[in-house]
Amino acid sequence: MTLLRPPNSKEAPKKSAQLPPLTLGTPILVEEHTPCTYHPSILPPELACRLFYTMLSMSDGWQRNKWWLFDRVVESPHRTSFFVRRPEQASAEKGSLDMQEAAQYWYAYNGRTTGPPDPFPPALEEACQIIERVVNAEMHKRQRYPLEWAGEVDHDENGTADHVLWRANVAASNCYEGAKESVGPHSDQLTYLGPYPTIASLSLGTSRMFRLREVIPTGEKDERSARTFNVPLTHNSLMIMHSSTQERYKHSIPPQSSLDLFYPPFPPPPELRNDVDKLPGFRSSARGDASNARINVTFRFYRPDFRAQTTPRCKCGVPCILRPDMKNRYTAPLPGKHDSSGTGDAEAGSGGARRDMVAKYWWTCYAGAQNDGKGCGLWRVMDVKAEGRGPFVGPL
Ligand SMILES: O=C(O)CCC(=O)C(=O)O
Ligand SMILES: [Fe+2]
């Protein structure tokens, strides 16, 4: 019998099957395949429309992010802006976080711009209160990772205690005008978010495809390959990127060859009514006013234990950035605690945590993006204990 076995069959490298892209068109499919949840109709329709008009009218003044890539300056193929919530809305420890420095580093190249960050406009605050409740409710249903923020106890006006796991204290907004504007595959920097962040992403205006693709750890490359997931993000939908999304996946909004115009179901607020044709991406047609723009707002929680004043600086004197080590994600597994699911992916599905593995993160020099592409090249493993971070969900 041994003669019939192909030679070296045990040693032959296994080629993992290539999987075709999959469109995840329903909340159930998103939950089944990714660490995200999709909420198709999140705000009262009138508020969603009012917020779309508000952000779109502001977006004329937003910047294209610029950074050095090798020897040249590149520009983001969309406009972006950053908002800081009023401290009394954003924290039980009223006003404890100084966001000035963190806010200015949203813009990679113009990091040293001064002036106070923009506050949430009223419609954004209204939306944020709704989204905060939904995000906390989702997080309470999920298994949490040890390195997530432990949360804090808040008391409402009746004195009832509430365990708050997430607060949106900042929001970043992008405007994509037309089908060609985009954002390339990336995972979000963790500098102020810390490990295993939750990011809530609101879509307004034209529908665009959101793409997720896992980065397979080096040690698992022979066993499985990544799949591309496409999720159409429609007007007034919320995509929550739950913990582990930034560690395991890159996300993008790819350029498209065409898009469906968005016909707002409500007229603009009175102050904008006479200037509709001046709104970016707006045009009048027989069917009414239509827009080719998408506004995205990502609500983020800048953690108190990762506040800007605690960010390590590199030799260039600028704050480092924090990145997950996606390819060699974990330090050594603890003995005898391997994944027994047989899928090789104990984290898949609705947040099952791989508690036997410890994720690895790097503080790296970012001056390269800002100073003629020349940085000091610093790379240092984050050590949460030595750096005094926490409180965490733990135990670590
Ligand atoms: O527009 C989106 O949905 C994604 C935006 C994004 O990934 C980012 O701003 O980091
Ligand atoms: Fe992102």
UniProtKB/TrEMBL annotation:
Highest taxon of the lineage: Eukaryota
Signal peptide: none
Region (Disordered): 1-21, 331-351
One Pfam family linked to the record: 2OG-FeII_Oxy_2
Residues annotated as domain Fe2OG dioxygenase: 160-303
InterPro entries in the record: AlkB-like (IPR027450), AlkB-like_sf (IPR037151), ALKBH3 (IPR032854), Oxoglu/Fe-dep_dioxygenase_dom (IPR005123)
Xref: PANTHER family: ALPHA-KETOGLUTARATE-DEPENDENT DIOXYGENASE ALKB HOMOLOG 3
Entry protein name: Fe2OG dioxygenase domain-containing protein
Organism name: Rhodofomes roseus
